Amino acid sequence: IPEPMTFSDQINEYNQTLVGDHNFRWGYLGEQLSRSGHDVETLLQQLAAFQVAIPSWALGTGGTRFGRFPAGGEPRSLEEKIEDVGIIHALNRSSGAISLHIPWDIPHDYAAIRQLLQANDLIIDSVNSNTFQDQSGQPLSYKFGSLCHTDADVRQQAVEHNIQVAEYGQKLGDECKTLTVWLSDGSDFPGQHHFRRAYQRTLESLQTIYNALPPDWTMLIEYKPYEPHFYSMLIPDWGTSLRLSEGCGARAQVLVDLGHHLPNTNIEQIVARLLHFGRLGGFHFNGSMYGDDDLTTGSIKPFQLFLIFCELVQAAQDAVVRNPPVAYMIDASHNLKDPIEDLLQSVQNILTAYAKALLVDTDALFDAQEANDAVRAEEVLRDAFMTDVRALVAEAIRRQGGALDPIGLYRHLSIRQQRIDTRGKLAVATGL
Ligand code: PSV
Ligand code: MN
Ligand code: MN
């Protein structure tokens, strides 16, 4: 009796059908890159090392307040979410971490979860607190805020929740060392909040959480200009996140979510500023047309995504920059696409933007900047941006054992249908 095929066998078999075309395209691109002075092996290693975490809440359709259209076969438990991220990572070898949201993802059997993670070659790298909803059995309400609340008992409850979330994280493995705090606190009407007092209460709450974290943990503070509150958000911008993180300590950092800016904000400049101050802690990638749309990363503004990566690449090469390692994650959840396909597309777009940023001739760029040659500077960037790097990204994934066309193989194997068969057509992801 022949042995059943492993997933890795299936990837190899599928890659065999594509490798002829791939080798032709990669042969040309590799040669072209070498001719322009790039070390192709180094580029492949840099791409292979790049990992983007998947949030547990992106594996189901998010819906809107007007309705939800589930994909079918969505994960109903933390275990099934790990299985789904396992598939993504097996296909692209670039999504080796998961971010959990507590209480949606409270583990029941830690040892079993750790084993499942290992079997899927995954880690849990961060945990997110939730004080934007009231949970059943919770004594006090967050209707009027959590860490900023006027009532000290509500603040205390929210502080304790955050500390507990970090405790869950510590039990999930040594790799989990990040607590991300996104606050929905804010006001809807002029006069509702005493802005300065609300800020001060938030700072003190965050300081209490920060001081309770293990010494090797980082606290990321995320900002957002509007929603769910529409007159003021407690942490609306990077300036507020920066001041709050400075007020807590060196391991408190700013988290930039691409969808949390007003239209046309120069996000790449914000990224450069935070890198300059050594306070860029993490990213939530998504695509945005209007605001917090959570669309596929790179689907709307691929040039901006590239410019953001240019700042990251330049900072990594600059000895003056003293920024800790940045945590990369996707934060997306919408109604139409199969969530796994969307995540595969997002990671592909992120790797593409990163690859293009690695191709920028920084010396030529800096020379043009010093000479105030705006045209030349822009042309240097465009030269990298216009390069078709898909074969480079595919080769980096292939060399790690991933699929040359991750979405193609996902469809070829009918994985969504398999999920529907085992989990049910109406299975809806937990926690959204
Ligand atoms: C709400 O805007 C949000 O999308 C934030 O970006 C958080 O990171 C995420 O939810 C999870 O709490
Ligand atoms: Mn986010
Ligand atoms: Mn958001």
UniProtKB/TrEMBL annotation:
InterPro entries: L-rhamnose_isomerase, Xyl_isomerase-like_sf, Xyl_isomerase-like_TIM-brl. It comes from the Bacteria. Keywords: Isomerase, Manganese, Metal-binding. GO terms for molecular function: isomerase activity; metal ion binding. It holds the Pfam family AP_endonuc_2. Residues 107-293 form the Xylose isomerase-like TIM barrel domain. This is Xylose isomerase domain protein TIM barrel. The lineage of its organism: Bacteria, Pseudomonadati, Bacteroidota, Cytophagia, Cytophagales.
